[in-house]
Design a protein that fits this description.
rod-shaped, alpha/beta, 359 residues, 53% helix
Length: 359
Protein backbone atom coordinates (compact mmCIF):
# COMPACT_ATOMS: atom_id res chain seq x y z
CA UNK A 1 0.00 0.00 0.00
CA UNK A 2 2.81 2.36 0.95
CA UNK A 3 4.60 1.58 -2.30
CA UNK A 4 1.49 2.48 -4.32
CA UNK A 5 1.09 5.82 -2.48
CA UNK A 6 4.78 6.58 -2.99
CA UNK A 7 4.45 5.76 -6.68
CA UNK A 8 1.47 8.13 -7.02
CA UNK A 9 3.29 10.95 -5.25
CA UNK A 10 6.34 10.42 -7.43
CA UNK A 11 4.20 10.41 -10.58
CA UNK A 12 2.45 13.67 -9.60
CA UNK A 13 5.76 15.32 -8.80
CA UNK A 14 7.41 14.01 -11.98
CA UNK A 15 4.67 15.15 -14.36
CA UNK A 16 4.27 18.49 -12.63
CA UNK A 17 7.99 19.09 -13.10
CA UNK A 18 7.65 18.20 -16.77
CA UNK A 19 4.73 20.62 -17.10
CA UNK A 20 6.66 23.41 -15.43
CA UNK A 21 9.67 22.73 -17.59
CA UNK A 22 7.51 22.82 -20.71
CA UNK A 23 5.94 26.10 -19.60
CA UNK A 24 9.34 27.67 -18.92
CA UNK A 25 10.61 26.32 -22.20
CA UNK A 26 7.63 27.77 -24.04
CA UNK A 27 8.36 31.19 -22.51
CA UNK A 28 12.09 31.07 -23.12
CA UNK A 29 11.86 29.67 -26.62
CA UNK A 30 8.99 31.44 -28.40
CA UNK A 31 8.91 32.70 -31.95
CA UNK A 32 10.18 30.88 -35.01
CA UNK A 33 12.78 28.13 -34.65
CA UNK A 34 13.22 28.97 -30.96
CA UNK A 35 13.97 32.64 -31.70
CA UNK A 36 12.01 35.54 -30.32
CA UNK A 37 10.55 37.62 -33.15
CA UNK A 38 10.62 41.33 -32.29
CA UNK A 39 8.65 43.69 -34.50
CA UNK A 40 10.10 47.17 -35.09
CA UNK A 41 9.69 50.16 -37.37
CA UNK A 42 12.29 52.87 -37.75
CA UNK A 43 11.56 55.61 -35.19
CA UNK A 44 14.64 57.72 -34.46
CA UNK A 45 16.09 58.18 -31.88
CA UNK A 46 14.53 55.03 -30.40
CA UNK A 47 14.87 52.73 -33.42
CA UNK A 48 17.58 53.81 -35.86
CA UNK A 49 18.54 51.75 -38.89
CA UNK A 50 22.09 51.99 -40.21
CA UNK A 51 22.58 49.56 -43.07
CA UNK A 52 21.46 46.20 -41.70
CA UNK A 53 22.11 47.18 -38.09
CA UNK A 54 19.72 48.75 -35.60
CA UNK A 55 20.51 51.11 -32.76
CA UNK A 56 18.72 53.64 -30.57
CA UNK A 57 17.35 53.90 -27.06
CA UNK A 58 14.73 51.16 -27.46
CA UNK A 59 17.31 48.80 -28.94
CA UNK A 60 19.69 49.59 -26.08
CA UNK A 61 16.97 48.98 -23.49
CA UNK A 62 16.17 45.57 -24.97
CA UNK A 63 19.84 44.57 -25.11
CA UNK A 64 20.20 45.42 -21.41
CA UNK A 65 17.08 43.40 -20.59
CA UNK A 66 18.26 40.45 -22.65
CA UNK A 67 21.58 40.32 -20.82
CA UNK A 68 19.54 38.72 -18.03
CA UNK A 69 17.02 36.79 -20.15
CA UNK A 70 19.64 35.52 -22.61
CA UNK A 71 17.04 34.83 -25.32
CA UNK A 72 17.76 34.33 -28.99
CA UNK A 73 15.88 36.86 -31.07
CA UNK A 74 15.57 38.43 -34.47
CA UNK A 75 14.06 41.72 -35.66
CA UNK A 76 11.23 41.93 -38.14
CA UNK A 77 10.74 45.36 -39.69
CA UNK A 78 7.50 47.02 -40.74
CA UNK A 79 6.97 50.09 -42.93
CA UNK A 80 4.91 52.10 -40.43
CA UNK A 81 3.62 52.17 -36.87
CA UNK A 82 0.10 51.19 -37.88
CA UNK A 83 1.41 48.07 -39.67
CA UNK A 84 3.55 47.20 -36.66
CA UNK A 85 0.62 47.48 -34.23
CA UNK A 86 -1.48 45.23 -36.46
CA UNK A 87 1.35 42.68 -36.54
CA UNK A 88 1.59 42.61 -32.75
CA UNK A 89 -2.18 42.30 -32.39
CA UNK A 90 -2.31 39.44 -34.94
CA UNK A 91 0.55 37.49 -33.26
CA UNK A 92 2.85 37.93 -36.24
CA UNK A 93 5.57 38.88 -33.75
CA UNK A 94 6.17 38.01 -30.11
CA UNK A 95 6.55 41.63 -29.04
CA UNK A 96 7.56 45.08 -30.19
CA UNK A 97 10.15 47.25 -28.45
CA UNK A 98 9.14 50.38 -30.37
CA UNK A 99 8.27 53.45 -28.28
CA UNK A 100 4.53 52.82 -28.07
CA UNK A 101 2.38 54.99 -25.81
CA UNK A 102 -0.02 53.13 -23.53
CA UNK A 103 -3.59 54.30 -24.19
CA UNK A 104 -7.00 52.92 -23.29
CA UNK A 105 -7.90 51.85 -26.85
CA UNK A 106 -4.57 50.07 -27.22
CA UNK A 107 -4.93 48.28 -23.90
CA UNK A 108 -8.09 46.64 -25.23
CA UNK A 109 -6.10 45.14 -28.11
CA UNK A 110 -2.61 44.62 -26.68
CA UNK A 111 -0.66 43.95 -23.50
CA UNK A 112 2.12 46.27 -22.33
CA UNK A 113 5.23 46.12 -20.21
CA UNK A 114 6.17 48.58 -17.52
CA UNK A 115 6.98 52.01 -19.07
CA UNK A 116 10.65 52.50 -19.87
CA UNK A 117 10.52 56.15 -21.02
CA UNK A 118 8.40 59.19 -20.15
CA UNK A 119 7.71 61.49 -23.07
CA UNK A 120 5.26 64.20 -24.18
CA UNK A 121 3.07 64.84 -27.19
CA UNK A 122 4.56 67.93 -28.83
CA UNK A 123 3.93 70.32 -31.70
CA UNK A 124 6.34 71.22 -34.51
CA UNK A 125 5.89 74.18 -36.80
CA UNK A 126 7.68 76.43 -39.26
CA UNK A 127 9.84 79.07 -37.58
CA UNK A 128 8.56 82.60 -38.05
CA UNK A 129 10.78 85.48 -39.24
CA UNK A 130 10.30 88.42 -36.87
CA UNK A 131 10.96 91.17 -39.44
CA UNK A 132 8.52 89.70 -41.91
CA UNK A 133 5.90 89.31 -39.18
CA UNK A 134 6.24 92.99 -38.25
CA UNK A 135 5.88 94.06 -41.87
CA UNK A 136 2.79 91.92 -42.29
CA UNK A 137 1.27 93.34 -39.11
CA UNK A 138 1.96 96.93 -40.25
CA UNK A 139 -0.27 96.37 -43.24
CA UNK A 140 -2.93 94.50 -41.31
CA UNK A 141 -6.43 95.90 -40.96
CA UNK A 142 -6.04 96.06 -37.18
CA UNK A 143 -3.09 98.43 -37.48
CA UNK A 144 -4.60 100.52 -40.27
CA UNK A 145 -7.91 100.88 -38.42
CA UNK A 146 -6.08 102.17 -35.31
CA UNK A 147 -4.28 104.79 -37.43
CA UNK A 148 -7.53 105.84 -39.15
CA UNK A 149 -9.31 106.27 -35.80
CA UNK A 150 -6.47 108.45 -34.53
CA UNK A 151 -6.49 110.63 -37.64
CA UNK A 152 -10.27 110.91 -37.47
CA UNK A 153 -10.22 112.20 -33.87
CA UNK A 154 -7.46 114.71 -34.68
CA UNK A 155 -9.43 115.94 -37.68
CA UNK A 156 -12.63 116.26 -35.63
CA UNK A 157 -11.12 118.59 -33.00
CA UNK A 158 -9.17 120.52 -35.63
CA UNK A 159 -12.40 121.08 -37.54
CA UNK A 160 -14.26 122.25 -34.40
CA UNK A 161 -11.55 124.78 -33.56
CA UNK A 162 -11.51 125.99 -37.16
CA UNK A 163 -15.27 126.65 -36.99
CA UNK A 164 -14.70 129.14 -34.14
CA UNK A 165 -11.44 130.65 -35.42
CA UNK A 166 -12.01 130.95 -39.18
CA UNK A 167 -13.48 134.50 -38.96
CA UNK A 168 -11.84 136.16 -35.95
CA UNK A 169 -8.47 134.41 -36.35
CA UNK A 170 -8.34 134.15 -40.11
CA UNK A 171 -4.60 134.77 -40.33
CA UNK A 172 -3.72 131.59 -38.45
CA UNK A 173 -6.56 129.27 -39.49
CA UNK A 174 -7.82 130.71 -42.83
CA UNK A 175 -10.84 129.74 -44.90
CA UNK A 176 -11.97 126.65 -46.76
CA UNK A 177 -9.98 123.45 -47.11
CA UNK A 178 -6.73 125.22 -46.32
CA UNK A 179 -8.19 126.45 -43.03
CA UNK A 180 -9.40 122.95 -42.11
CA UNK A 181 -5.86 121.68 -42.74
CA UNK A 182 -4.52 124.38 -40.38
CA UNK A 183 -7.03 123.21 -37.77
CA UNK A 184 -5.85 119.62 -38.28
CA UNK A 185 -2.24 120.76 -37.85
CA UNK A 186 -3.06 122.60 -34.61
CA UNK A 187 -4.96 119.53 -33.29
CA UNK A 188 -2.04 117.19 -34.01
CA UNK A 189 0.52 119.54 -32.44
CA UNK A 190 -1.65 119.97 -29.34
CA UNK A 191 -2.25 116.21 -28.95
CA UNK A 192 1.46 115.41 -29.13
CA UNK A 193 2.32 118.35 -26.80
CA UNK A 194 4.97 119.53 -29.27
CA UNK A 195 3.87 123.13 -28.78
CA UNK A 196 5.20 124.95 -31.86
CA UNK A 197 3.06 127.99 -30.98
CA UNK A 198 2.51 128.94 -34.63
CA UNK A 199 -1.25 128.52 -34.21
CA UNK A 200 -3.40 129.09 -31.14
CA UNK A 201 -7.12 129.72 -30.69
CA UNK A 202 -8.13 133.30 -29.79
CA UNK A 203 -11.90 132.97 -29.39
CA UNK A 204 -13.66 131.70 -26.29
CA UNK A 205 -15.21 128.79 -28.24
CA UNK A 206 -11.86 127.88 -29.80
CA UNK A 207 -10.07 127.91 -26.45
CA UNK A 208 -12.85 125.89 -24.82
CA UNK A 209 -12.54 123.22 -27.52
CA UNK A 210 -8.77 123.39 -27.12
CA UNK A 211 -9.04 122.88 -23.36
CA UNK A 212 -11.28 119.84 -23.81
CA UNK A 213 -8.94 118.44 -26.46
CA UNK A 214 -5.87 118.83 -24.25
CA UNK A 215 -7.32 116.64 -21.51
CA UNK A 216 -8.96 114.17 -23.90
CA UNK A 217 -5.75 113.82 -25.88
CA UNK A 218 -3.88 112.57 -22.81
CA UNK A 219 -6.37 109.72 -22.41
CA UNK A 220 -6.85 109.00 -26.11
CA UNK A 221 -3.20 109.02 -27.04
CA UNK A 222 -2.49 106.44 -24.33
CA UNK A 223 -5.26 104.08 -25.40
CA UNK A 224 -4.68 104.53 -29.12
CA UNK A 225 -0.93 104.06 -28.72
CA UNK A 226 -1.62 100.84 -26.85
CA UNK A 227 -3.94 99.74 -29.66
CA UNK A 228 -1.34 100.47 -32.32
CA UNK A 229 1.37 98.72 -30.31
CA UNK A 230 -0.91 95.71 -29.87
CA UNK A 231 -1.59 95.55 -33.59
CA UNK A 232 2.16 95.64 -34.30
CA UNK A 233 2.97 92.96 -31.73
CA UNK A 234 4.09 89.78 -33.45
CA UNK A 235 1.54 87.10 -32.66
CA UNK A 236 3.26 83.73 -32.81
CA UNK A 237 1.37 80.49 -33.30
CA UNK A 238 2.61 79.41 -29.87
CA UNK A 239 0.83 82.41 -28.34
CA UNK A 240 -2.43 81.31 -29.95
CA UNK A 241 -2.35 77.76 -28.57
CA UNK A 242 -3.55 77.68 -24.97
CA UNK A 243 -5.31 74.30 -25.05
CA UNK A 244 -5.82 71.40 -27.40
CA UNK A 245 -9.06 72.84 -28.83
CA UNK A 246 -7.05 75.75 -30.28
CA UNK A 247 -5.44 73.28 -32.70
CA UNK A 248 -8.70 73.24 -34.64
CA UNK A 249 -7.79 76.72 -35.96
CA UNK A 250 -4.83 75.32 -37.89
CA UNK A 251 -4.00 72.71 -40.49
CA UNK A 252 -2.73 69.78 -38.43
CA UNK A 253 -0.94 66.57 -39.42
CA UNK A 254 0.01 63.55 -37.33
CA UNK A 255 1.29 60.00 -37.78
CA UNK A 256 -1.39 57.44 -38.58
CA UNK A 257 -2.06 55.02 -35.72
CA UNK A 258 -0.11 57.07 -33.17
CA UNK A 259 -1.27 58.10 -29.72
CA UNK A 260 -1.20 61.69 -31.00
CA UNK A 261 -3.85 60.76 -33.55
CA UNK A 262 -5.95 59.14 -30.83
CA UNK A 263 -5.70 62.36 -28.80
CA UNK A 264 -6.75 64.52 -31.76
CA UNK A 265 -9.65 62.19 -32.53
CA UNK A 266 -10.73 62.28 -28.89
CA UNK A 267 -11.15 66.07 -29.11
CA UNK A 268 -12.51 66.00 -32.68
CA UNK A 269 -9.52 67.92 -34.05
CA UNK A 270 -9.33 67.60 -37.83
CA UNK A 271 -5.97 66.26 -38.96
CA UNK A 272 -4.21 64.79 -41.97
CA UNK A 273 -2.42 61.45 -41.59
CA UNK A 274 1.19 60.77 -42.59
CA UNK A 275 3.07 57.47 -42.52
CA UNK A 276 5.98 58.58 -40.29
CA UNK A 277 7.83 61.52 -38.77
CA UNK A 278 9.95 62.05 -41.90
CA UNK A 279 6.91 62.67 -44.06
CA UNK A 280 5.39 64.94 -41.43
CA UNK A 281 8.52 67.08 -41.07
CA UNK A 282 8.73 67.41 -44.85
CA UNK A 283 5.14 68.65 -45.08
CA UNK A 284 5.80 71.30 -42.43
CA UNK A 285 8.99 72.30 -44.21
CA UNK A 286 7.11 72.63 -47.52
CA UNK A 287 4.33 74.64 -45.80
CA UNK A 288 1.74 72.03 -46.75
CA UNK A 289 0.52 72.13 -43.16
CA UNK A 290 0.91 74.47 -40.17
CA UNK A 291 1.40 72.05 -37.26
CA UNK A 292 2.81 68.55 -36.84
CA UNK A 293 1.52 66.89 -33.66
CA UNK A 294 3.59 63.89 -32.58
CA UNK A 295 5.96 62.59 -29.90
CA UNK A 296 8.19 65.43 -28.75
CA UNK A 297 11.58 63.60 -28.56
CA UNK A 298 11.04 62.13 -32.02
CA UNK A 299 10.21 65.55 -33.46
CA UNK A 300 13.28 67.15 -31.89
CA UNK A 301 15.60 64.37 -33.01
CA UNK A 302 14.37 64.45 -36.61
CA UNK A 303 14.74 68.24 -36.80
CA UNK A 304 18.25 68.06 -35.32
CA UNK A 305 19.28 65.21 -37.59
CA UNK A 306 18.24 67.14 -40.70
CA UNK A 307 19.78 70.43 -39.46
CA UNK A 308 16.44 72.23 -39.63
CA UNK A 309 16.65 74.09 -36.32
CA UNK A 310 16.75 77.46 -38.12
CA UNK A 311 13.73 76.53 -40.19
CA UNK A 312 11.53 74.48 -37.86
CA UNK A 313 10.88 74.52 -34.13
CA UNK A 314 9.14 72.42 -31.49
CA UNK A 315 6.86 74.47 -29.27
CA UNK A 316 7.41 74.50 -25.52
CA UNK A 317 3.72 73.74 -25.02
CA UNK A 318 2.95 70.04 -24.73
CA UNK A 319 -0.44 68.38 -25.04
CA UNK A 320 -0.08 65.36 -22.76
CA UNK A 321 2.39 63.07 -21.01
CA UNK A 322 3.22 59.75 -22.69
CA UNK A 323 4.59 56.51 -21.27
CA UNK A 324 6.55 54.31 -23.69
CA UNK A 325 6.32 50.54 -23.18
CA UNK A 326 7.00 47.30 -25.01
CA UNK A 327 3.84 45.92 -26.62
CA UNK A 328 2.72 42.27 -26.73
CA UNK A 329 -0.13 40.24 -28.22
CA UNK A 330 -3.06 39.97 -25.83
CA UNK A 331 -2.46 37.28 -23.19
CA UNK A 332 1.28 36.91 -23.89
CA UNK A 333 3.22 35.10 -21.16
CA UNK A 334 6.30 37.13 -22.06
CA UNK A 335 4.95 40.14 -20.18
CA UNK A 336 5.36 38.44 -16.81
CA UNK A 337 8.88 37.31 -17.63
CA UNK A 338 10.15 40.58 -19.09
CA UNK A 339 8.59 43.03 -16.63
CA UNK A 340 10.74 42.21 -13.54
CA UNK A 341 13.92 42.31 -15.61
CA UNK A 342 12.88 45.57 -17.29
CA UNK A 343 12.19 47.20 -13.92
CA UNK A 344 15.59 46.13 -12.62
CA UNK A 345 17.22 47.45 -15.80
CA UNK A 346 15.64 50.88 -15.38
CA UNK A 347 17.34 51.15 -11.97
CA UNK A 348 20.77 50.29 -13.33
CA UNK A 349 23.66 52.72 -13.85
CA UNK A 350 23.94 51.68 -17.50
CA UNK A 351 20.36 52.75 -18.20
CA UNK A 352 20.79 56.07 -16.37
CA UNK A 353 23.83 56.84 -18.50
CA UNK A 354 21.91 56.02 -21.68
CA UNK A 355 18.85 58.05 -20.76
CA UNK A 356 20.87 61.24 -20.18
CA UNK A 357 21.35 61.58 -23.93
CA UNK A 358 17.60 61.67 -24.55
CA UNK A 359 16.33 63.97 -21.79
Amino acid sequence: MKSIISLCIFSIFFFSEIGMAQEIDSIQSPGVNGKLVIGITETPPFIVKEGNEFSGLSIASWELVNETLNLEYEYKTYPSLIHLMEAVENNEVDLSINPVTVTNPRMKRLDFSQPYFISYTGIAKKSETMIWSYLVNMFSWKFLSAILILLGVILLFGFLVWLFERKKNNEEFGDGVKGIFHGFWWSAVTMTTVGYGDKSPKTFGGRFIGLIWMFMAIIMISSLTAGIASSLTVQNISDEINNIQDLDNFEVITVAGSSAQELLNQYNIRSEEVANEKEGIQKIQDKESALFVYDQPILKFEIDRRNLNDELEVLQQTLKRDYYSYSFPKGSMLVGEINPVLIATLKSMEWNNLIKNYQ
